From TrEMBL:
GO molecular function, a single term: cholesterol binding
SMART domains: PH (SM00233)
Annotated PH domain residues: 59-156
Swiss-Prot/TrEMBL keywords: Lipid transport, Lipid-binding, Phosphoprotein, Transport
InterPro entries reported in the protein's UniProt record: OSBP_sf, Oxysterol-bd, Oxysterol-bd_CS, PH-like_dom_sf, PH_domain
Biological process, per Gene Ontology: lipid transport
Record's compositionally biased regions (Polar residues): 221-231
Secretion signal, residue range per the UniProt entry: none
UniProt biased composition (Low complexity): 31-55
Coiled-coil segments: none
Protein's recorded name: Oxysterol-binding protein
Protein's organism: Astyanax mexicanus
Lineage: Eukaryota, Metazoa, Chordata, Craniata, Vertebrata
Length: 710
């Protein structure tokens, strides 16, 4: 068995080093552990450099191109991956040229597991302890084994060191017993999970099948009692299935060992050796995953019990219980627009020939190829990509500080919501469509960005690592004609919420399209009894016949009647000749004294400079702000009218470039909406939204925080 694993590792290492030295693209590069993950990557490693001192085998940098699978994508995307053993992270970039920039994504390897998969050739999956995963493919079996070996070594090293550092903590004492709480064999085992490979010397060279591979996990009496008390029936079934799998694996190994040592099919066949290694690794990973599941299930059971008690007392509603089913969003819907193709241009020209200047485009069916791969409701949710800045608003000690923080959040929200300047149009939500998500915001991050003249604020003494505030979001299309969307976001712990309704009015402007966001939002800070009323800017799609691009324009206002503070934000459109794009300026004023307390200028998708009346100033680069990913429920648990599930076939077709199929599925949704509208009209049945009610000219969430006793 050692020969099998060693043979695979040497194969991957020697091939990749030679390929890198020859300048071959797409092969991973192995670098010694003392080198920085960012420094020295451009130089080609010398032959044999990846397999130097054995003591450094746990600290080797590995990088190269792998295929990454994205949710809802019927295919794979090439991404450049970097394994950083010092940070204990697997990072990926768009390509090799962008590897010195901020990673597109990363996966913490502490407590993670790596397992091969037969779903696709040379596929393997990296499961992180936080619930995230990467589905990856290598170019061949040797390269896959090389990546798996290094990932497992890195994960084991960081997991072991973390266990030593945190052995005295409460979490460690309750979790460590569970992570090894699965036992495949009845005999005693060492404290750590291990794969022991032995070969018995017999007259025929056969080993004892029961001792060839032993996969054991120590299980403490306390954890055993907890597992039996809290593990649901499905986990017990998993244990039984894995026990059966272990028995089948032993039979497989027995069959392999019984083969002759020479001949067309021998016990030393490379494919069979690889099969033995991967089967052992897979069972080990599954055992560790089951241990983590047992911990998570028991923890969730306690949380659900606590929150169910709150539900019985009227303190919690069903929408908050559904948050337990959510997981971190892994969707990668980057828009890559290279301009308008010739056949698409002819379609646009035909459409433009039927339009008049100023014509309302609300009822005009636009071609599918201009669609962005997300719903308008999800775009509103993406405006909350910096929830730490949003939650920090209510922490301001004065009314002036709170409105300044609100302006800072407001100006930094649009760059992520718009996904850059690509002129794509989100899906028009159908009537009754909803979108739900949430964010777990670490408490130590809920603080304002530091100024250039003051140190970074110290987090509250009560903030503990891993301690999070929960912020949840719901949006609904409450009207189709006119198209009106309502969305509501709430953090009960910090006693703040925001309610917004938006009517999107689009009109034809010759070589561009303008979209007005009619409506308003209200931010409620219940701790201070303040309401901040704000509006939204207009959006413009320019150069629709050549290379379309988006800019924001118009003047918006933010005002608080109680404190007397207000702000004016102006999004400047680019002049016909000269000028800069995406410019924005803002001014915060105390109306009773007519005093300007803050000014801001810059680009809404770039750098913003804030200047205060005290003389202090600070610069925020929106492109470098950390984004906290939202958490959503998986498609199979979403209702049929939730955005991701509703548009899943259109999204999948657009990702593969199948415009005809996307158009067909989009047409089916539109026809279903028309049919349901005719049925309501025939029976004189008014439409009743699920989450929002109409109040005056606006729409309000049916159970807002300011109406509850909190």
């Amino acid at each position: 068995m050692e020969r099998a694993c060693g043979g695979v590792s040497r194969c991957g290492s020697s091939r990749t080093v030679a390929a890198a030295a020859a300048g071959e693209r797409g092969k991973p590069t192995v670098r010694p552990g003392n080198s920085s993950p960012r420094a020295g990557r451009s130089s080609s490693p010398s032959p044999g450099r990846g397999s130097g001192n054995p003591s450094q085998s746990h600290k080797r940098h590995l990088e190269g191109v792998l295929n990454k699978y994205t949710n809802l994508l019927q295919g794979w995307q090439n991404r450049y991956f970097v394994l950083d053993p010092e940070l204990g992270q697997l990072q990926y970039f768009l390509n090799e040229q962008s590897k010195n920039q901020k990673p597109r994504g990363s996966l913490p390897l502490i407590g993670s597991s790596v397992a091969p998969s037969d779903e696709f050739p040379f596929m393997f999956t990296v499961y992180a302890a936080n619930g995230e995963l990467f589905k990856l493919r290598a170019c061949d079996a040797c390269e896959r084994q090389l990546w798996m070996n290094q990932l497992q070594l890195c994960a084991r090293r960081h997991s072991d060191s973390s266990g030593c550092r945190t052995s005295s903590s409460t979490f460690s004492s309750s979790f460590t017993g569970r992570t090894r709480s699965f036992s495949l064999l009845p005999h005693p085992a060492p404290p750590c999970s291990s794969i022991n490979t032995q070969r018995q010397n017999t007259p025929h060279g056969h080993g004892n099948p029961g001792s060839i591979i032993t996969i054991t996990h120590h299980k403490s009496p306390t954890s055993s009692q907890r597992a039996s008390n809290h593990s649901p029936a499905p986990l017990h079934q998993v244990k039984e299935v894995m026990s059966q799998a272990e028995g089948q694996q032993k039979n497989l190994l027995n069959s392999i060992e019984s083969l002759p040592s020479r001949g067309p099919l021998s016990s030393l066949d490379p494919d069979l050796l690889l099969l033995k290694a991967t089967s052992a690794a897979t069972l080990s990973c599954l055992g560790e995953c089951l241990s983590i599941l047992q911990h998570n299930v028991s923890q969730a059971a306690r949380n659900i019990t606590t929150h169910t008690q709150g539900l019985n007392t009227g303190e919690l509603n069903l929408s908050q219980l559904l948050l337990f089913e959510e997981s971190t969003d892994t969707e990668d819907n980057e828009e890559e627009d290279l301009g308008v193709l010739d056949d698409q241009r002819s379609i646009i020209l035909h459409l433009l020939s039927q339009l008049k200047l100023g014509m309302d485009l609300t009822r005009v069916v636009l071609p599918t190829f201009i669609l962005e791969k997300r719903s308008l409701l999800e775009m509103y949710a993406n405006f909350m990509a910096h929830p730490d800045m949003f939650l920090a608003i209510t922490s301001g000690t004065t009314a002036e500080e709170r409105i300044v923080r609100f302006v800072e959040y407001y100006l930094t929200a649009f760059h992520e919501g718009r996904k850059g300047a690509v002129a794509k149009k989100p899906y028009n939500p159908i009537l009754g469509e909803t979108f739900r998500c949430s964010w777990d915001v670490p408490r130590e991050r809920v603080r304002p960005l530091r100024t250039t003249s003051s140190p970074c604020p110290v987090p509250p003494a009560s903030a503990k690592p891993g301690d999070c505030c929960r912020l949840w979001f719901v949006a609904e299309q409450v009207s189709h004609h006119p198209p009106v969307s309502g969305f509501y976001c709430e953090c009960k712990e910090r006693r703040m919420c925001v309610n917004t309704h938006v009517w999107t009015k689009s009109k034809f402007m010759g070589m561009s399209v303008g979209v007005s966001m009619v409506g308003e939002g209200v931010l409620h800070l219940l701790e201070h009894d303040e309401q901040y009323v704000f509006t939204l800017p207009c959006a413009y799609a320019r150069s629709i016949l050549t290379v379309p691009w988006v800019e924001l324009g118009g003047k918006v206002s933010i005002c608080c009647a109680k404190s007397g503070y207000s702000a004016t934000v102006t999004f400047h459109t680019k002049p016909f000749y000269g000028g800069k794009v995406h410019r924005v300026t803002a001014e915060v004023k105390h109306n009773p004294t007519n005093t300007i307390v803050c000014k801001a200028q810059g680009e809404w998708n770039g750098t913003l400079e804030f200047t205060y009346s005290s003389g202090e100033s600070k610069v925020i680069d929106t492109s470098k702000l950390p984004v906290i990913k939202k958490k959503i429920r998986p498609l199979e648990k979403q209702s049929q009218y939730e955005s991701r599930r509703l548009w899943q076939h259109v999204t999948a077709a657009l990702k593969t470039g199948d415009i005809d199929t996307a158009t067909e599925h989009k047409h089916q949704l539109e026809e279903r909406q028309r049919s349901e509208g005719k049925q309501r009209a025939a029976t004189s049945t008014p439409w009743k939204p699920k989450y929002f009610i109409k109040e005056g000219e606006g729409w309000v969430y049916h159970n807002p925080l300011w109406k509850t006793n909190c």
